Each structure stands twice: as structure tokens, then as C-alpha cells.
Amino acid sequence: MINDIKTRTERKKEETQKKIVSIAMGLYRAQGIKATTMEQIADEVDISRKTLYNYFSNKEAIVGEYMKKYLKVHLQHYLQLLDDLPDTSSRLVAIMSKGEEWSRMEIPEDVATAYSEYRLRTLIQSLSDQSIRTGLSDIYCYIIKLGQRSGELRSDINEKELTNYLITIVMVSMLSNHEKVQSEESIAKNINYFLNGARNMFSN
């Protein structure tokens, strides 16, 4: 009986979380993230502000949850894509060039910019708090592991450290250029910055 109650409670929390994300993203698209308040989101969801803050600390965290669910659904597709590519550079290009894929998430430019700024501010915190991350770092980490296994990337640095280095480069670039989808030039520059420091000097 207790287990049944916990299951129902957990299911209700998940449903409330989904409702918050759905309604909030709808408001962001309709009127912009700056014009939307946490109070308005709570009213639209029909919960108290206190309850809303129990789920999300701010508006940007809601965007992060939206992106996390999207990436989770498509994770196996991305991993298969990466396995079929020959090297680290082509894998990074494939993931960073997913402009069409990202646009399907229907994230307006102002929302993407606000989220990038939020992730930059919380970068250090996210190193220890996995809940802040969307799951994209796991995909980058997978790419790095493949590169280390093949001997293309140096293995004297932990893959998680290299992943954090790569994510920092990408986020700073997106923030400085205010790009929702990065240009080919920006992508190539980020990959070059990363590989110059991560490439194994003994690789061919």
C-alpha cells in the first residue's frame, strides 16, 4: 500500500512538472521570457508560487528541463550517428551542426540566449549538480571517450574534464555571438580550439 501511494505521488509530481514546462514554454513563445514571470506561470498552472519554486528555481531552469526531455528521447539516435562517423572532428561537427534538429524544439532566440547566460552563470555549480545539465554534456563525453579509445585524443586528461572544457568553449561562443544556432564558421572555430588542446600529439 505504501509503495502504491509513493508511485501515485511520484506520478503526480511528474505530471505537474510536465504541465509547468508545457505552459511556461507556451508563454515564452507567446510573449517572450522576459515578459513572463514565475507568478504568471504558477497562476496558469494553477499552483502556488511556493509549489512552483519547489520544482524550478527560475524561468531558465524550466527551459533546461524542456531541453533535457528532448535530448533524452533522441539520445539513441545521436549515439548511433556518432558511432558511424570516423573521427572526433566529424562527430563534433555532426552534433554542433544540428541546427534543424534544435529548431524543432521551438525555442525562441530570446529564450535560447537567456538559457545560455544562465548556463554560463551556473557552469561551476553544474560540475557537481547534474540536475542543471540537459544531457548534451553526456553526448560530448561519449564523443571524447570514442576519441580516447581510438588514440586520437589524449588520455592523460579525464574525459569529464575535457567535456567541461569543450562545453565552456561552446557556451562562451554562443553567448558572445548571441546565436541560437551556431554558424559553420563558429562551429569550426570551437572544434579547432578544443582539438588543439585535446589532440594526442602522437596520433596520426
UniProtKB/TrEMBL annotation:
<keyword id="KW-0805">Transcription regulation</keyword>
<dbReference type="Pfam" id="PF00440">
    <property type="entry name" value="TetR_N"/>
</dbReference>
<dbReference type="InterPro" id="IPR036271">
    <property type="entry name" value="Tet_transcr_reg_TetR-rel_C_sf"/>
</dbReference>
<keyword id="KW-0804">Transcription</keyword>
<dbReference type="GO" id="GO:0003677">
    <property type="term" value="F:DNA binding"/>
</dbReference>
<protein>
    <submittedName>
        <fullName>TetR/AcrR family transcriptional regulator</fullName>
    </submittedName>
</protein>
<feature type="domain" description="HTH tetR-type">
    <location>
        <begin position="14"/>
        <end position="74"/>
    </location>
</feature>
<dbReference type="InterPro" id="IPR009057">
    <property type="entry name" value="Homeodomain-like_sf"/>
</dbReference>
<feature type="DNA-binding region" description="H-T-H motif">
    <location>
        <begin position="37"/>
        <end position="56"/>
    </location>
</feature>
<dbReference type="InterPro" id="IPR001647">
    <property type="entry name" value="HTH_TetR"/>
</dbReference>
<keyword id="KW-0238">DNA-binding</keyword>
